[in-house]
Design brief:
With 295 residues, the chain is α/β, with parallel strands linked by helices. The protein has a domain at 41-187 and 202-247: Pyruvate Kinase, Chain: A, domain 1 (3-Layer(aba) Sandwich), CATH 3.40.1380.10. It has helices at residues 2-37, 43-55, 86-99, 111-119, 136-151, 210-294; strands at 74-78, 105-109, 125-127, 158-167, 170-179. The chain has a 5-stranded mixed β-sheet with strand order 3-2-1-4-5, with helices on both faces. Helix 1 runs antiparallel to helix 6. The longest helix has 85 residues, at 210-294. The two termini are 40 Å apart.
């Protein structure tokens, strides 16, 4: 009887957990759909920004945003604080330490990432996790911080490691180089004057100075990149959560099926045992009556 009660309790628990998982899965699907519908694309803005970069001729300009440096790197890592994403966060942290070198800085977005890094006894700068409704304020805070680190020469190369959304079932760990970013600007070659074929180059007036224009363009570009990465991270998080919950739901269904089988088996065993006990008691009682009658 104790075995039957235990199996019944297990079956009831699995059924309740299946209901909870299905509710969580529905919420995750709904949230993913909301984020995908609200996903903002800035294709036109990006095209104009790229045109500006192509127009600006850096010439011999040297700037901390543009040049490689021996200064330790700043590795920015974006992790998720929502539940059921331990595997995704571990993959991100593993990618961080593939890039990490001694004296490099770590900038962690998200409590879970902070816990992993803290457990490895590494120092890091912390920012709260990316919110579902991404605000300009959180983008601005991270942008200003990474730019300040480079300008003050506290960090050289700056990379961002984050989960990149490929499709509903695929999320890749992406490594994006933020600085140096000379690759944004076109490398122009000066035309040589030729008596037979004189080429007059188009001249662009830069005001107030080339340095300030470059800094402004890179600042705008950095904010745009961080916002885009935040969007990709959130989509990856919710898609990964849906996939994980789907797997958990399938596993619980399998456990419910097994528990139901064990329950009916235990029920039948209990019924058989009761029948045998009743039959044995009846036989024993009949035998006792027969002995009494013979006496």
């Amino acid at each position: 009887m104790a075995k039957l009660i235990k199996v019944r309790e297990e079956l009831q628990f699995n059924r309740e957990m299946t209901g909870i998982i299905n509710v969580l899965k529905g919420v995750a699907v709904s949230e993913f759909a909301r984020l995908q519908r609200g996903r903002k694309r800035f294709d036109e803005f990006e095209a104009y920004l790229k045109n500006f970069f192509q127009i600006v001729d850096l010439g011999n300009l040297s700037h901390v945003f543009l040049e490689d440096s021996s200064i330790p790197a700043n590795i920015v890592v974006i992790t998720s604080d929502i539940g059921f994403l331990g595997k995704l966060n571990i993959s991100i942290i593993a990618a961080v330490f593939e890039q990490y070198k001694q004296d490099d800085q770590l900038t962690v977005i998200g409590k879970q990432g902070g816990r992993y890094i803290e457990g490895m006894a590494k120092e890091f700068s912390y920012f709260p996790g990316v919110s579902d409704n991404i605000s300009f304020g959180e983008v601005e805070r991270l942008r200003d911080y990474v730019i300040k680190q480079v300008v003050e020469k506290k960090a050289g190369r700056t990379i961002i490691i984050y989960p990149h959304f490929v499709s509903f079932g695929i999320q890749e760990i992406q490594i994006f180089q933020l600085f140096p970013c000379r690759f944004l600007f076109s490398e122009k070659t000066k035309s040589k004057d030729n008596k037979d074929n004189e080429v007059e180059e188009e001249r662009v007036i830069i005001e107030p100075s080339l340095k300030r224009i470059v800094e402004y363009l890179i600042r705008v570009w950095t904010g745009y990149i961080i916002y885009t990465i935040f969007q990709e991270s959130k989509l990856s998080e919710w898609a990964a959560r849906v996939i994980h919950l789907e797997g958990s739901s399938d596993e619980l269904k399998r456990q419910v099926k097994e528990a139901r089988f064990r329950y009916f088996r235990a029920l039948h065993e209990n019924s058989d045992r009761n029948i045998r006990e009743i039959f044995s008691s009846t036989m024993a009682l009949g035998h006792a009556r027969q002995v009494k009658y013979e006496k």
